Inverse folding.
C-alpha cells in the first residue's frame, strides 16, 4: 500500500465544454479508493501555478491546448526544482503535452509512422493538396482539435475549392480502416511501461468521434503493437498515453497520441479497470521519486 498522496487534478468544470466529463471522476474515485486525497481544479478558473504544483501528483485532464499555459507550468516546475522544493509527479510533463496536443508537432516527431501530412499555410495550399491528386479523398483536420471536431473527408478537388486559402489546418492522406481505429492506453514513467488497455473503436462512419456511434472490442496486444506503443510513449514523454492508430497493409499508422485518454471506455465496455491500473502505476512511480 502506497503512502497517502495529495493529488491535484485539473479538469473542465464547465458543463457546456464537451470534453472528458466521464473519465476524470473515475480516476478521482480510483485515487480516493486507495486513500489518496484528491483536489479538483477548474480549467475555467485557473489557480496559480504554485497552487497547481502544491501536491505529490499533478494530473492534467483539461481541454487546454494553449502552449503558453504549459510553458508557464514547466517554468514554475523548474523554479521549484531549482529551489529544492518538492515537485510533484507530472501527468503529464507540460512540454511533452505541447507536442502531443498539436498534431503538426506529433507529425514531426514521428514522420515515418503518421499518414503523409502537410500543414496548410494559406500560401502553398494548392500544391500541398495536389500531392494527393490521385487519391479519391483527403482528410482535413484541425491540429489542435479532438473528438474529430473540424475533421472532414473530402475529395482533393473540393479541398482545393474549400481549403485553398485556409491556414492552421492539416491535409492528410486518407487511410481507410478495415475493422476500426485502434487505441492503446498505456502508462509510462522512466522505463516502467504498462499497457492498461488495448481496444478497437468501430464507428458507424468513416471516423470515430463526436456525432458517431461506436462499438468497442478488446484487441490482442501483439508484441509488435506493444513495442510500437512503448516507443511512442517513451519518445513522446507522456505519462498517460492514448495512442490512436489504423492498421493498413500490415503496418500500424499512427494518428495521434492523446494526453487525456478516455478511461471510461475500458472500464464500462471492456471490463478493464483502467483507472485503478493507472493509480497503481502512479503509486509505483511516486514511490521512486
Ligand atoms: N488520415 C486518416 N485516415 C483515415 N481516418 C482518419 C484519418 N485521420 C483521422 N481519421 C479518423 O478521424 C478520427 C479522429 O482523428 P484523430 O486524428 O484521431 O483526431 P481527434 O481524435 O483528435 O479528433 C480517427 O479516429 C479516425 O477515425
Ligand atoms: Mg483520435
Amino acid at each position: 500500500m502506497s503512502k497517502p498522496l495529495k493529488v491535484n487534478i485539473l479538469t473542465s468544470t464547465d458543463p457546456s465544454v464537451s470534453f472528458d466529463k466521464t473519465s476524470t471522476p473515475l480516476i478521482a474515485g480510483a485515487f480516493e479508493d486507495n486513500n489518496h486525497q484528491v483536489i479538483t481544479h477548474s480549467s475555467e478558473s485557473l489557480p496559480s501555478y504554485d497552487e497547481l504544483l502544491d501536491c505529490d501528483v499533478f494530473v492534467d485532464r483539461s481541454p487546454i491546448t494553449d502552449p503558453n499555459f504549459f510553458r508557464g507550468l514547466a517554468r514554475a516546475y523548474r523554479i521549484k526544482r531549482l529551489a529544492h522544493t518538492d515537485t510533484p509527479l507530472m501527468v503529464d510533463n507540460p512540454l511533452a503535452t505541447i507536442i502531443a496536443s498539436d498534431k503538426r508537432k506529433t507529425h514531426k516527431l514521428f514522420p515515418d509512422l503518421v499518414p503523409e501530412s502537410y500543414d496548410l499555410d494559406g500560401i502553398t495550399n494548392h500544391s500541398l493538396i495536389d500531392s494527393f491528386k490521385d487519391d479519391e479523398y483527403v482528410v482535413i483536420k484541425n491540429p489542435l482539435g479532438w473528438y474529430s471536431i473540424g475533421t472532414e473527408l473530402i475529395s482533393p478537388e473540393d479541398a482545393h475549392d474549400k481549403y485553398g486559402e485556409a491556414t492552421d489546418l492539416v491535409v492528410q492522406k486518407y487511410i481507410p480502416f478495415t475493422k476500426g481505429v485502434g487505441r492503446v492506453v498505456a502508462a509510462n514513467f522512466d522505463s516502467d511501461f504498462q499497457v492498461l488497455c488495448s481496444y478497437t473503436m468501430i464507428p458507424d462512419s468513416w471516423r470515430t468521434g463526436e456525432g458517431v456511434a461506436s462499438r468497442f472490442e478488446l484487441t490482442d496486444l501483439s508484441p509488435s503493437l506493444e513495442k510500437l506503443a512503448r516507443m511512442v510513449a517513451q519518445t513522446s514523454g507522456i505519462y498517460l498515453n492514448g495512442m490512436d492508430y489504423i492498421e493498413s497493409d500490415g503496418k500500424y499508422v499512427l494518428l495521434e497520441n492523446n494526453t487525456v485518454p478516455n478511461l471510461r471506455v475500458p472500464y464500462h465496455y471492456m471490463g478493464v479497470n483502467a483507472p485503478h491500473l493507472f493509480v497503481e502505476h502512479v503509486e509505483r512511480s511516486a514511490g521512486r521519486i
